[in-house]
Each structure stands twice: as structure tokens, then as C-alpha cells.
Amino acid sequence: MSIDARLAELRITLPQAAAPVAAYVSSVQAGDLLHISGQISLAPDGLMTGRLGEDRELDYGVAAARICGLNLIAQMKAALGSLDRVERVVKLGAFIASAPSFTDQPKVANGASELMVEVFGEAGKHARSAVGVPVLPLGAVVEIDAIVLVRAAG
User: Fold this and answer.
1) pLDDT tens-digit series, residues 77-124
2) How many CB atoms lie under 10 A from the CB of residue 3?
């Protein structure tokens, strides 16, 4: 089954890949690795903001991480043309805006990690970092970057 068919089966519609907002590019392919710049928790109805353990709860963070995951997949498609070129999601780096007492960053990052497995199956299983930070760009609650192994075009 193609990844597009899998997305349709899951009733997932990808957002438009976001353009960079500063002096960087959305992704860089180096050999067979695609490095995707951090994607913030920009949902269709606006940016998900705040700090977990302060003004936002765990479920909000998990939902925000899933949004970041959708934005990462949209960047993969924009860079590769076809999601069928994704051979493996190698690593996700999750940054979670959180209060010092909040320690559930791994649970938040699961919002994106579980999405990768839903969409790519075994190839979606990856290494990961989940780090608490005091603030993220534009006040976003979550930002996630990725490294993806890609197949040659054709």
C-alpha cells in the first residue's frame, strides 16, 4: 500500500508544508538522509502555544506533538515528491516548552512518534530525544525536527 493510500485510510489530510520564517531552509538532503528543520505546533486553526505544567496540560502537548508530526510529513512530501521514498524515520528531536516541574516530555513526544508508526509502519520506528525547554519560537508549545532515510527517486 502506498503511503498516500495509508493516509487516506487513516483519514489524515496533510497540511501545506510551511515556508521557513528565518535564514534557513525547510530541509536538506545529504546523501540518503533528509534532515528536516524543526516544525512548530502550527495547527490549521492557529499556533498551539504555552508551557506544559504551567498553563497547558499533557493532552494539549501530545496533540501539539502530533501536529508537529503532520507538519514533518508534509515537509517530507514537499522535499521528496512522494512519501513512498521514505525508507525509514531515523530520528525525531522533540523540544517541549515546559515548566521546571514538568517531567513528561517523553509522553508529549509520543504524539509524533506514534503518528510516524501509524503512517509508515515499522519504518516509522525511530530513535528520539525529548527535551524540556523554557521557551520556543513564537511561543509554540512543541517543536520537532527529523532525520529520514530516503530511497533513490525512480
Assistant:
1) 999 999 999 999 999 999 999 999 999 999 999 999 999 999 999 999
2) 19
